[in-house]
Task: structure prediction
Amino acid sequence: MSKRRAQELADEAEIENQHAEVTCAEPMDRDRIDEIETVLDDDRETLVERLDIESPPGPITEDADGWDEAIDALRESGAKSVATAMRSRVDTLRERAERSFPSLLRLGFRPERPFEFVPGQFARISYEEEEPRVYSIASSPNAEDMELCIRRVPGGHLTPDLCDRTKEGDDLFLRGPYGDEFMLQDPTDRDLVFVATGTGAAPFKSMIDYTFEEGLDEYDGTERDVWLFVGSSWKDDLPYREAFLELADEHDNFHPVMTCSREKHLSNWEGETEYVQHTLLKYVDPEKAETDSLPPETEEFVGSDPANEVDARIDPGNSEVYVCGIGAMCESVRNVVEPLGISDLYYEEESYG
Result:
């Protein structure tokens, strides 16, 4: 389907109101409190040895004062660097331990009537008496059920109920589809590069699934590389991580690259850890990139060693780029891809927040 035709369909589509039945309400993140306490046991041993105390701090969510006092005492003992590192780690793990579970939800549902949309569009839903909200559609138009990716907003009006209460068989009120700008371009021989943070990956799940289902990863008999860069704090905050990895096993020309800034505190994370725009630069072919106009702090990433073993590299002059996420991230990505020589004609962006 051409972009023009997709836009025509989006423009022609009537905004419909209908009910939908929940078919899946599945957390994508995990309750990691046991993992956190296990990691903190090493810090407890350090405090016992260094401070010669018998009782180390207790559970991170219950003994915040105990941890703060122990780390302050560690610093005063002269172990400043150890105390600084422990403070950063403990604060990070405390923040994770205190957040509600689940905080990232797959919400699948079946509309009572056919709901036609194109990848990149969004829908508005409401649940019980809560105010409606709009979400990018994460499922392919070919899928039997629709799906949204829900991130809990603490204190929000709808997402806490969706995360805590929805179950199979529940009723949603659905309205849409909306959006006629952020969608796949007409197929060419250009490679596809998708860049997102957090739930910005939702529309790309729809686009990428549809691309492979419809054979749009080939043009005139030649495969196109399909890249996906997704960033988050934690591994289990990467939406559809397992599904993307399974898709990569099925298609050699699909390259999901995931970067996590905090996961190293909890596991032996061997993936990328840089900002998503810096991670993207690692996979750019330095021989085909114009780097003279890159921001000085970013040029060093081009051609640097990536964490993932991928033989392919990105040719900026033969790529189309799609970016979705919070506004600051989108601006940071734009600030690196424009100097690389990617034309506005081949750059699509949807920002929020």
Residues 33-98 form one domain.
